[in-house]
Amino acid sequence: MTTGAPDQPDDPAERKMRFLFALRSRGITDSRVLTAMERVDRGQFVRGIFADRAYEDMPLPISCGQTISQPSVVGLMTQALNVQPRDVVLEVGTGSGYQAAILSLLARRVYTIDRHRRLVREAVALFQDLSLANITAVARDGSFGWPEQAPFDRIIVTAAAEDAPTPLLQQLKPGGIMVLPVGQSDHVQSLIKVTRTETGFDYEELRPVRFVPLVEGLAVE
Ligand code: SAH
What we know:
The protein is of the alpha/beta class. It has helices at 12-25, 31-39, 71-81, 98-106, 117-129, 166-170; strands spanning 60-61, 67-68, 88-92, 109-114, 135-139, 152-157, 172-182, 189-196, 201-209.
């Protein structure tokens, strides 16, 4: 006869504990990042047949042939960005809106851009449902940044370019940090952290990653 509580894989509290444990074991130690990731339910950003895998540490398909990043990669990028409470953050690649939702709990304001109007529309609806009032989302080509709102304290790009786009470097404040994957889209890319100094830019390579490509122009839907 067995004693004690049976294993309940679908118990939300258990699930959350396992989710946070997986993040910690992959190097996410910043308590503000962990708290934000505990508060934003990834299950609300994944739809359809993959919804029941939302708490696993894997990227998953979303609309428009795009992907919601792996939670541990979201955590590592957010941690590397070192967002401060008064920061204004630009995200390029809204996708599901999951990364923007996490940033919105850490920053003063988040501007997020996607080239797919449909993804922006769906993400905005979620931000409203979740009362995340400090996020502004727009459909346009994010490789040009958002000059009207620049400069930014922090910039995060969640699609891979061959190099850091010049307009984004220009829209970063001195002392500001940008985290982005660089490299060819069909290869393993490098996640890099760029810090703008008074005189130039410092580059630090963080780890290999795989992201969908940064594509030019607005998409058809
Ligand atoms: N951060 C997202 C995942 C993004 S997937 C999340 O948390 O779910 C990468 C996204 O980048 C895709 O949605 C894709 O449409 C978008 N993207 C690719 N090229 C772009 C560009 N030039 N401008 C804006 N968005 C772009």
